[in-house]
Amino acid sequence: MSSPEEQAMLAEAAQIHQEQRQQLYAIDTTYAIQRGLTMGRTRLKSRNHYLKVAAITLITIMVAGLWLLSPIRGTVTPQAAKEQSLEWGALSKFKEIDYDIDQSTLESAIRNNYVQLINKSAKSGPYQINIDAVTADENKLILLYSAQTDSSQEIYDVNSVRMKDAQTGRSLGNTSKMGGWEGQSWHGRGTLELDRSQPFPRSIEVDFQIASVDRGKLSDPKTGTVKSEMKYSERMKIKFDLEPKFASIKTEKYQPNQTFMLGDHQIVLSEVEISPLMTRVRFAYDPGKKMNFQTKLLISDMVQPFEIVSKTDDGRVYKLSSLSGTGTEDGSQYTFSSNMLDDPKSMVLKLYPESRASYASEQEVEAHMLELKIK
Known about the structure:
5-stranded antiparallel beta sheet
């Protein structure tokens, strides 16, 4: 039987999960797939046990199925091949986080010295959390953190990462999380979308909680399903100030107003926003016409962005992955990775063709993708 304290922590964790699903559904579904893939890879390397692999694969497929059934969804695409050697330095341990579809954004920030090293820690019993680094703009914040515990425990997850403006107390929300572990250690990345209509937070307080199991339990395929076996740290808080450079670069806006047809419907690439850590594109459906909900869902299912191809003056090519999507009053919007700091001279948005299933191979699909010039 769980103690009242454990029950309270479990209830709080469930509430946090529900809040995340309500506030960040599109983003969290994508990252849930990433976490499933990472869990499969990590456990396969460490245990090589067929039952574990089957269980993890089933979970991943179930989550992916729910994601694919969503009318508007993030698109998990491979990262571009590295065009040049990138030195991660003190952050090299975060380079190995697998299936990180937003890694191209972080690499651009590192290339352009747009990262602030923090190195502040907090402890609670056998647990320790450390904020290694942060990068931010007026639309998005990326936090790199690491966790450790003593030899009696194995870290299952940093299960909660909340942020607030340390000066005003305003909640900034719960982050979407991605990470990986090696027994007593964890390296993670938290991503938070910011509301630029609100004042930019100059000082941040991050509130963490770590979930663990007794040593040797992490290899059990049932781990994560038996609540009584999970242990949680007390909440640990770390405050830090953001460097002024993160508030200095404003979002650039473009109105491509490029029109294309999908079936009998007219679609307009109406607006593109670009900032150091995020690219956001907006589509308008059948401008000037009244549209019911079912028609909007039908069109949303046909509008499937693949990636943005970004080219710089010196010939480097970067592929920016689609991260998430959501409906708007007159259409939809999608967020992508960004390499604004590399000063791209051209950006082309690629979308899947309307009759994707009719092509014999992915190569044919790519050859028939729609291409829309952003800049």
